[in-house]
């Protein structure tokens, strides 16, 4: 039931998927989920070498690296998938969507729980990195290319490097697969505009205190 549900979910979410059979036979995201179930089963029974062997074979076949210890909920949609990495203590909730090039990894400084935890209905855009034992709340959307280094509240949209929350109040009743990547604010541009405005105010203030025809005091 779980794998059939995963296949139908991919078919429903991917407009390029024509039917479930195509998903089962041709989609690397589905193949990665299938092999991860086997690897995770072996991992939970402390057959660590066999678990890693299965996961590494899957990595070579699909380009998706999922550690056998990672916990994945129902109906995960991995779109394209090439270059995806999930660390050992990663936890992913139900009905999440993850695009290619995403890393759910560690910082190299943590022990024990080292990797992210995603709630339900989370979308992680292409090339985004979520690092460390951070918690990503339900219905969160992370824009493409963002780097998340701290917790994100539920129903938020975050973008940038490092990622900042730019919107709160994502739709709760729908899967987080409606992120308009083109409509997201440009955090760098906003910060530059704020600096320019601040500089203009400082220049105006300085000119008010020391008019051009009045000599300034020695420094």
Intertermini distance? 77 Å
Shape: elongated
- Overall structural class, as computed from helix and strand content, comes to alpha/beta
Q: What is the alpha-carbon Rg in Å? A: 23 Å
Q: How do the strands of the widest beta sheet line up side by side?
A: 3-6-9-12-14-15
Pick out the low-confidence regions. Answer: 172-177
Major sheet: 6 strands, mixed
**Care to count the β-strands?**
15
Helix content: 25-40%
Helix and strand sequence: HHHHEEEEEEEEEEEEEEEH
Mean pLDDT, all residues: 87
Q: Could you tell me the strand content as a percent range?
A: 15-25%
> Helical stretch count?
5
Keywords: Acyltransferase, Amino-acid biosynthesis, Cysteine biosynthesis, Cytoplasm, Repeat, Transferase
InterPro entries: Hexapep (IPR001451), Hexapep_transf_CS (IPR018357), LbH_SAT (IPR045304), Ser_AcTrfase_N_sf (IPR042122), Ser_O-AcTrfase (IPR005881), Serine_acetyltransferase (IPR053376), Trimer_LpxA-like_sf (IPR011004)
Pathway: Amino-acid biosynthesis; L-cysteine biosynthesis; L-cysteine from L-serine: step 1/2
Enzyme class: transferase
Describe the structure.
A hairpin with a 4-residue loop joins β14 (156-159) and β15 (164-168). The longest helix is centred in the last third of the chain and has 23 residues, at 187-209. The protein has helices at residues 2-13, 20-26, 28-44, 48-62, 187-209; strands at residues 65-66, 71-72, 77-79, 85-86, 91-92, 97-99, 103-105, 117-118, 123-124, 129-131, 135-136, 141-142, 147-148, 156-159, 164-168. α1 (2-13) crosses α2 and α3 runs antiparallel to α4 (48-62). The termini are far apart. The strands form three sheets. It has a six-stranded mixed beta sheet. It has a five-stranded parallel beta sheet with strand order 1-4-7-10-13. Strands 2-5-8-11 form a four-stranded parallel beta sheet, with no helix packed on it. Residues 172-177 have low confidence and may be disordered. The protein is built from five helices and 15 strands. With 219 residues, it is an alpha/beta fold.
């Amino acid at each position: 039931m779980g794998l059939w549900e995963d296949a139908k979910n991919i078919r429903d979410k991917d407009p390029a998927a024509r039917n479930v059979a195509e998903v089962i036979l041709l989609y690397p995201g589905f193949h990665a989920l299938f092999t991860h179930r086997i690897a995770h089963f072996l991992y939970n029974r402390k057959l660590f070498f066999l678990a890693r062997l299965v996961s590494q074979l899957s990595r070579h076949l699909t380009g998706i690296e999922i550690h056998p210890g990672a916990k994945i909920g129902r109906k995960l949609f991995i779109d394209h998938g090439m270059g995806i990495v999930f660390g050992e203590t990663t936890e992913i909730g139900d009905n999440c969507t993850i695009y290619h090039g995403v890393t759910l990894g560690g910082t190299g400084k943590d022990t024990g729980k080292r990797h992210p935890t995603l709630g339900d209905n989370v979308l992680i855009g292409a090339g985004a990195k979520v690092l460390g034992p951070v918690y990503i709340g339900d219905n969160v959307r992370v824009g493409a290319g963002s780097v998340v280094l701290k917790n994100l509240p539920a129903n938020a949209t975050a973008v940038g490097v490092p990622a900042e929350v730019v919107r709160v109040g994502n739709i709760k009743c729908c899967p987080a697969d409606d992120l308009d990547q083109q409509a997201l604010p440009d955090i760098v541009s906003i910060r530059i505009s704020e600096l320019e405005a601040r500089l203009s105010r400082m220049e105006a203030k300085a000119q008010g205190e020391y008019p051009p025809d009045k000599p300034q005091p020695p420094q």
